[in-house]
Each structure stands twice: as C-alpha cells, then as structure tokens.
Specification:
GO terms for molecular function: broad specificity oxidative DNA demethylase activity; ferrous iron binding; oxidative RNA demethylase activity. It is a single chain. The chain has four helices and 15 strands. By secondary structure, it is an alpha+beta fold. The chain has a single domain, classed as Jelly Rolls. The radius of gyration is 18 Å and the shape is globular. The structure holds N-(carboxycarbonyl)-S-(naphthalen-2-ylmethyl)-L-cysteine (MD3) and fe (iii) ion. The site of N-(carboxycarbonyl)-S-(naphthalen-2-ylmethyl)-L-cysteine (MD3) has 15 residues, from strand 8, strand 10, strand 14 and strand 15.
Length: about 230
C-alpha cells in the first residue's frame, strides 16, 4: 500500500498551517534579522522571472576602480543597477553592456522584499534596484560597506539561492571583529537602521551541487538606491 492511497481525504483533516514550518528568525544585530527559509514558498514563482532577467542582462565580471576583476558575476534589474568600472562604483539606469535600461524589477521580487522587510520591522519597503550576484566555487566578496545609495533610511533585503555560503557580518569599522553566518537556499536577510552601514562580505564559495541551481550561489540584493 502506498502512503498516498487515501490522499486528499486524509490531508483534508489538516489545515495548511499544520504543514508550515515555524518561522525561524535569527537576530544578527539590533536591526538585522535572518529569516530562515522565508523565500522557500516563493522560489518556484521567482526562478522563471530570474531566468528572464538574466536572458536580457547576463552575468558579467566587472572591473573595480583599482583594476581588479570581481570574482562574483553581476547583473541587475529595476530602475537602477549597481555597476563598477575603472572610473568608480555607481548606480546607473542603463546597463553598460547592452546600453539599454536594465530589465524591470519583477513583481514577485518586489512582493518578497516588501514582505520580508515587514517581517523584520521595516514596513513599506519599496525597492527600485535589485543587484544579482553569481558565485561559482572560489568566488568571494571582500569586506565592504554599501554606501552608493542616496538614502540609508531604507533597509536592504537579500535572498540566497543555491549553494550555501558563509556571510561575514562586521561592525562600523573594517577592523571590528566579524561574525560568521551560514546562508542557505531560501534564507532572507534584512539589514536596516543602525546596522545599515556595517561592514560585510562573503567567504570563498565551496564546491558543491544544488538540486535547483547546480554549481553556484545566486544572491539577490534589493535596495532603495535612488
Ligand atoms: C549587510 N552581497 O552585493 S548579502 C552586496 O551575499 C553584498 O552577495 C552579499 O554584500 C552577497 O553588496 C551579502 C547583502 C548585503 C547587502 C547590504 C548590507 C548585506 C549587508 C548592508 C549592511 C550590512
Ligand atoms: Fe554589500
């Protein structure tokens, strides 16, 4: 006998809430939270939208002002996209590779970001930019602050997909000790307020294979940039 033999009749005795994992919220700082698995119910709707964005604006490895090539592949969607080249870091309404506007921010990205921000205590978040980072094994992001946004009062929402990574969360100064946090597929992190300008980075990605994403980690970072 198969366990689904009396299928829907048995399932019908339970409500949807019996199948829902409890919310797992971890405190990273006074105004930053890890929402474990928050995006899992959204992933199926989100991945085709992500594919469409990446078809129009493929990942590319950008140059830093110092002349290094970033190990992380970057793309963007929304009214503004973050870019870097020899002349500096900035937000631009135009994709420098295609010379066309960035793809629009998919509605499901906006809805997820608004819901996550609200769950972390920042209601009314309206992102205008989504940076998409692609990590292959060995790719990393050195400790830095996000300072190119016009207004630091809005939070930043980040969604991790695919292979796990170790996120480094430091303090207000580069030399402050940083904590290590593993970020897994479906985890969402929200930073705002007093934590908005803290140093952060990502350790070199370990090799592995994710059932949906393969040999990579993709991070979506939703911001209010303009
Ligand atoms: C913490 N990305 O794109 S999550 C970045 O996983 C970036 O790809 C990392 O740092 C990644 O700039 C980390 C995003 C993140 C963004 C802004 C923050 C973490 C933050 C601001 C303050 C503290
Ligand atoms: Fe950052």
């Amino acid at each position: 006998m198969h366990c689904n033999d009396d299928g829907p009749a048995t399932l019908g005795l339970f409500s949807d809430s019996d199948l829902q994992q409890p919310a797992r919220v971890e405190v990273l700082g006074p105004q930053s939270r890890v929402l474990r698995g928050f995006a899992l119910p959204w992933v199926e709707a989100l991945l085709p939208q992500l594919d469409a964005v990446l078809a129009a604006a493929p990942f590319r490895q950008m140059q830093t002002p110092g002349g290094f090539t970033m190990s992380v592949g970057l793309s963007s969607c929304g009214q503004l996209g973050w870019t870097t080249d020899r002349s500096g870091y900035r937000y631009s309404p135009i994709d420098p590779q295609s010379q066309r506007p960035w793809p629009a921010l998919p509605k499901v990205f906006q809805e997820l970001a608004e819901a996550a921000a609200e769950a972390a205590g920042f209601p009314g978040f309206a992102p205008d930019s989504c940076l998409i980072n692609c990590y292959r094994p060995g790719a990393k992001m050195s400790l830095h602050q996000d300072k190119n946004e016009r207004d630091y009062s809005a939070p930043i929402v980040s969604l991790s997909l695919g292979l796990p990574a170790i996120f480094l969360f430091g303090g207000r100064q580069r030399s402050d000790k940083s904590q290590r946090v593993a970020l897994l597929h479906g985890d969402v992190v929200v930073w705002g307020g007093v934590d908005r300008l803290r140093y952060h980075g990502v350790l070199a990605l370990k090799d592995g294979h994710h059932p949906l994403l393969g040999q990579q980690r993709i991070n979506l970072t939703l911001r209010r940039a303009g």
